[in-house]
Design goal:
By secondary structure, the chain is an alpha/beta fold. It has helices at 2-14, 56-63, 124-130, 157-173, 193-204, 227-231, 238-241, 261-268, 278-286, 293-297, 372-385, and strands at residues 23-24, 29-44, 69-84, 87-88, 95-100, 135-139, 185-191, 211-215, 235-237, 255-258, 291-292, 311-316, 354-359. Strand 7 (185-191), helix 5 and strand 8 (211-215) form a beta-alpha-beta unit.
């Protein structure tokens, strides 16, 4: 019954018209692109990285070590999947959605783990393309087809944020790429760590992005600590877990994967069958990517005091990562009570340009639940209202 209800909701959602007349095209047009980028940043000094993550004390000591900084710099290669719209909407031809995934995923998160966006029910990219937006879904640094530098000292949020600012500059001005450039408007769509990076972009480069859709993020209350639930996902060294997929020559110690299928599901998903198709989670687990220890150390959400453009926050109502204790087995949080506080990240954004939505019957990977279309529709209606 729940699945049937969501199918009906999706049908209703897809019948909604956009801001300008639409003309459907037959298929999506996606292609690969690589960006050669360089940046400099102040990363954290990362001492005593743990090697055994069942040692909770050592893991906590690493994550809570005293703050000191070191400069990192250098060139990196970033992969992206560029997809043209499947619906022609002239008003959106010069607006790009830049899709930035979270930890332990790659660009395919936004495709619902398909090679190209196809599922309007669960793929953000497919829905955005249907609404007339071109999309660029990247593999973040240290993930997938992008470069894999030192996972502890280099793969940190400050350095990544500076790389993506360089990417945004190229997207607005370069004429040497295999995809369209000179975008007049760029919308950052982040999920989880991708949203955290978005707050660092909007803080350090407040004019870089025209609008943010920040998903899978909130402000935890003082009594919420996701670490206990997250550690039940069974983080292990990637090269030991699957040396064929994660060869040791590339995946140095400090590149981690989740080894517990049940633990990962309890952290990221709600109730199987009742709230999501188990087969979709099977693909999630099979296609999971890594978490770099440097990313785990630099999960700071910044307050963007100068950014004043539109922001939409979309999070699963029962998200256990940002609103709970890291697992559905450790309680049922209510992000609807906490999401209003995310406006504190953006004090300069007018109230008229800020909205949020707690997607019902969904947890951290809200896009993979039956109710995903409700979030897609709400977020894109906001973008339309903001002139995108």
């Amino acid at each position: 019954m729940a699945a049937l209800t969501m199918v009906l909701a999706l049908s209703s959602a897809l019948s909604m018209s956009s801001a300008s007349p639409l003309t459907e095209r037959a298929t999506s047009n996606c292609r690969d692109v690589y960006f050669d980028l360089s940046a400099t940043a102040r990363n954290r000094v990362a001492n005593n990285p743990p090697t055994d993550f069942s040692d909770v004390a050592a893991t906590i000591a690493f994550l809570t070590q005293p703050v000191a900084f070191q400069q990192v710099s250098g060139p990196q290669k970033i992969y992206g999947q560029y997809c043209e719209p499947t619906t022609n909407n002239q008003a959106r031809n010069t607006t790009l959605q830049l899709l930035v995934h979270g930890n332990s995923y790659d660009h395919q998160y936004f495709n619902a783990f398909d090679p190209i966006p196809s599922s309007l029910a669960n793929s953000w990219a497919a829905y955005a393309n249907f609404q007339g937006y071109p999309t660029l879904a990247i593999d973040r640094l240290c993930i997938g087809k992008s470069s894999h530098p030192d996972p502890v000292n280099v793969c940190q949020a400050p350095y990544q944020a500076e790389l993506y600012d360089a990417l945004i500059t190229i997207l607005r001005s370069s004429t040497k790429l295999s995809i369209p450039t000179n975008w007049k408007k760029i919308i950052w769509v982040g999920h989880s760590f991708g949203s955290i990076l978005g707050t660092q972009i909007s803080t350090n480069h407040p004019n870089a992005i025209d609008a943010f859709v920040q998903t899978g993020i909130s402000i935890p209350t003082p009594d919420e600590n996701p670490l206990p639930g997250e550690l039940a996902s069974g983080y292990v060294q990637a090269s030991s877990y699957d040396p064929d997929r994660f060869p040791p020559a590339i995946y140095q110690p400090g590149y981690l994967v989740t080894s517990s299928k049940e633990g990962r599901a309890n952290t990221f998903y709600s109730n199987p069958l009742a709230d999501y198709w188990p087969a979709l989670y099977d693909r999630d687990f099979d296609k999971k990517d890594t978490l770099a220890l440097g990313e785990a150390l630099t999960q700071d959400v910044y307050n963007s005091t100068s950014y004043a453009n539109p922001v939409y926050v979309l999070t699963g109502k029962q998200d256990a990562v940002f609103c709970g204790n890291g697992s559905r087995l450790l309680g049922t949080p209510d992000c609807a009570e906490e999401l209003p506080a995310t406006k504190l990240f953006y004090p300069a954004v007018p109230a008229s340009k800020f909205e949020y939505y707690a997607q019902p019957n969904a947890r951290h990977c809200h896009q993979m639940h039956y109710t995903a279309a409700l979030g897609f529709v709400k977020a894109h209606a906001f973008l339309t209202k903001m002139g995108f």
